[in-house]
Amino acid sequence: MSAPTQERWYRRGGGAALGMLAIVVLGVGLGFGRADVALLGLPLAATAAVALRRPVGTASVAVAVAVEDDDVVVRVRVEGAAGADFAVLAAGAYEEPTTTVVVSSRTAASLEARLPVLHSGPQEVLRVGGQLFAAGADLVQHLDPQVARATIAPKRERVTSLLLPHRLTNRPGGHAARRLGDGLDFRDLAPFTPGDRLRRIDWRATARSPRPESELIVRRMDATAEAAAVIVLDSRDDVGAAVVEWGSDRPARKGTASLDLARPAVAAIAASYLEAGDRVAFHDLVRTGASARSGGGRRKLEQIRAVVTQTVARPSGTIKAPVLPTAAVVFLVSTFLDEDVAGLAVLWRNAGHRVVAIDVLPTPTLEGADEAHRLAHRILQLERADRLDRLRRVDVTVVPWQDEDHDALLRQAARSRGPR
């Protein structure tokens, strides 16, 4: 809840003028012996007395925000001073123009508004300001604007397919590796050699051997290994579906934004690998962005979710490529609106990493766009399509996350090549 604002009262001058008028009328009536004129001054004097009284105490306005289901609930409470009459509040949601509301505030008044959740991440939900009036609107108290902010967590999505790196780590894990080890997947039968464990001897195969008295047969298994996954987010852009809003970026009008797709994508990918027992790292590609070191377990998942939920767009940020572990699967989450990020994907692929480009540019809508907007958007889309095609030609997997079948695309890519 925001801190209450307290201000002193200012007199607008109406009560004093009314008091002077009452004095003049009373003076004229008494001076000329006109009782009827003097009686006219009495109501004026009483009204002036009411207008000149000062409220006792101070007033305050406070704003609280709560997220309930799919709505943002904003509660505004005005604490009126004793003797205050009413308050005029100006409230604007999601940086839109304000709406004026008049409420009685003799003691206290509460307003509640339910707003739809438009975007995830940190955002300004409501801005409230206004004035409190007393003494027949002769006294006014200006209330500083109160800003209600909220951080909306991204929706939880699930990814069922894991793309493994071209080479797994040497640490034991949940994936079958293409080398001998102590896994559960049968590889073959072979003669016993020094170093083999006795529990691996297959006595039935030994009994069927041509020389059972001199040669023992052991069952050899494939090793299990851990995958190293790295999620890299390009947070420079947060463009919405409405192309005409790319320049103004008004939250209530731009539609689904790229970070609205990126945040749940990062959380879903991280959850799928961490649940499989792998290690995951998260990096913001912008130099000033937050990161989460490589690790495993539920606490690591909650850390990554918290970091990506707090991520905001940094249009003027500069790129800083993170240091990647050897032979990792790298998920590069971006809109791919420029060459810089595509160049990093090619660089990492040439270094031996398996690279997956997660495209989070929303499906565009051209409603309200003029000819200049349409032409510029057409050129930009042609350049971007060519950029993504070049990534595919160098064996970078491209997955459009705005496509509802992104999990199926990941599953198809997972079957294309396994780890070594």
Automatic annotation (TrEMBL):
UniProt KW keywords: Membrane, Transmembrane, Transmembrane helix
- List all membrane-crossing ranges: 12-33
Q: Which InterPro entries match?
A: DUF58
Start and end residues of each DUF58 domain: 191-361
Q: What is this protein called?
A: Uncharacterized protein (DUF58 family)
Q: Which organism is it from?
A: Amnibacterium kyonggiense
- Specify the taxonomic lineage: Bacteria, Bacillati, Actinomycetota, Actinomycetes, Micrococcales
